[in-house]
Protein 1
Amino acid sequence: MRVWFITGASRGFGALIAQEALNAGDAVVATARNPQGLHEKFGNHANLLPMALDVTDEASAHKAAELAVKRFGKIDILLNNAGFGLLGAVEEATTDEIEKLYATNVFGLLKVTRAVLPHMRRQRSGHVINISSIGGYVSHAGWGVYCSTKFAVEGLTEALAAEVAPLGIKATVVEPGFFRTDFLDESSLSVSPSSISDYLETPVGAMREFAAGHNHQQPGDPARFAKAMVTLGHSHNPPLRMPFGSDTVEAIERKNASVAKELEAWRDLAVSTDFPKDVKED
């Protein structure tokens, strides 16, 4: 039996993955800012520990991790799932919006990870799974600030994987594409109200219209994603990056090809800044 510690477990991906983990016979520490609905959602399951957790509160994160270990003896899988989106041009986003986004998507993830890692280090095992996004690999107009938080998650996970591997701990960053969840609803997505008219006829304006018109029409199946996540959690040799959705796979392939093409075009200038190989500096 594996023990999952899941943030943002009250709805969306978090709730679906928690249920699939329970169905698989695992134990789940399901955390949420407001945990009142967790019992109603999952019932009084013997392998379930519902818990209040505000990921922006470091003391709360440490307390939750300690209670999880006290109940189940260990934490095998940390799933950093809590987060939300922000739609708007980089210039449109306010300082308050940006700081709140980073407080949850980046600093909250760090606080929970740092709270759980001491327990994983002690047991010399564990798997940290951080939910990123297609926007953590390819940024998009209208999502710049949100994507920047997910780029941060990608960089943190890549370094973390190298740091904890000698201690028997794995780290994976998950990159979901567009799935038919409530991500584009007001409960998960903030839309910057400070709209600048110059952006209306740009890709930013088009993205606002796209987001408004495509909610619950996304190609990804959340139920299939939840099952795949449990498969990932049970893997003995998980990948560093795990994309989910054909749209993510296609976006990664396009970006990799574009970067390779641009690098080839600018290679001579890129390498021209090295000291000449036959010149030794005193």
Protein 2
Amino acid sequence: MIAAPGFAATHLTYPLTSDGIDSRYDYDWAVLRAALEKTTPRYGVFEQHQSDVAMSPPRIVQEMTSPSGRINIFVRATSPELERQFMPVRLPVDRGLLGYRLLLIRAADQQRFSKVKTIADLRRLHAGLGQGWADVPIFEKAGVPVIEGSSYEGLFAMLEAGRFDFYSRSADEALREFQERHDAHPQMAVEQTLLLHYPLPRYFFVRRDAEGKLLAKRIEAGMEMMIKDGTLDTLFQRYKGDLIKNTAMQKRRVIHLANPKLTPQTPLARGELWFNPLTEPGNTVVPAEAGTHASHGRR
């Protein structure tokens, strides 16, 4: 193929995030590839690669901060700090699914979690999260104690060892991670009754330089095309549909938490960007600001 006039070939390198089992980002890079393919007639050919070495979240930021870093794009739950430091493509890659949270727990604790009805009840438990993760301030704002782990993989062992009570995972991650790690962590289970929710969009981030500006413009254009023609929803269903269906989110007791770190530019008003599994009647919902009683209704 020949690059489009005026544009050199686009080269993207995204981070390898773990040396072990880590399928968390397969969908994201499929979305990126589709967005680049959609825009090839306008912007030209592209190459998309994964970095050769695994990178922790701090290492990813370090590599992105350097103009000669080994990567030039990453995907992450947004924060004001990230949006200042890097250029976000403000379209939620996973349609906001990251904000719907299931809990990985020790199987023996299920009865204890079945009694959790309110945010006040949740405050009696300790959450396990990774260091610097965007949902740490969400739990802290809600008054839920947080224990931070230094590595994604290590958090599963910390849960089993009793260092905290639950490991908050997105609705699609929890079942997949349980299936992948059940043999290694036989005491772990997916909690059966609760669904936490808070708005937590995941964006593609690029550098704030000339190359990054062009990349962001291209990715945004491609994703807007995908949203309009249904390609994004098709990929979402292909990668996430079965896992979402198996969580039975509509049957769970929903506790809403506020996200104090959303920036004013967050596109919350664009309903077509956001997945909402809570449109069936009969959900039990605890609003973010209440936390003392359950109410019934649609979100």
